[in-house]
Amino acid sequence: MMIEVLKSKIHCARVTEANLNYMGSITIDEDLLDAARMIPGEKVYIADNNNGERFETYIIKGERGSGKICLNGAAARKVQPDDIIIIMSFALMDFEEAKTYQPALVFPDPATNRVP
After folding, report:
1. Which of 9, 58, 69, 98 lies most in the core, judged by the most C-beta atoms within 10 Å?
2. Closest Cα to residue 70, out of 101, 46, 36?
3. Chain-wide mean pLDDT for the chain?
């Protein structure tokens, strides 16, 4: 049996930008992607702590070291700059493998979005 489990989470990142005029996605600093074991094109689930919005999109790689977290396209209507969001990805795993799997959990600095 396969089950869907949390693979990676960037917890309490600060939205730095919302760009309505860009084709949909979320741009994430490459340092955060590496720390969270996420890749460009990967589907992610976003939860906004400020307004309760929850939605899915996909990742675009942002400039390394920039701290950039930018929601693009339609997703830009669901957040405001300075909102605090949780970015999660999930993976299908065999039930036995999932019992011992340890997700990548990243807690960026709230002021800079950089990995401590």
Report:
1. 69
2. 46
3. 97
Hey, where are the domains in the chain? Answer: 2-97
Contact 65, 114 (CB under 8 A): yes
Res. 2 pLDDT band, cuts 50 70 90: very high
Give catalytic status of residue 25 as yes or no: yes
* CATH architecture under which domain 2-97 falls: Beta Barrel (2.40)
Active site residue 22: no
- pTM summary value: 0.96
Radius of gyration of the chain (CA): 14
Which of 27, 26, 36 is closest to 6 using CA atoms? 36
Cα torsion 69, 75, 79, 82 to 10°: value is 10
Catalytic residue among 8, 25, 66, 89: 25
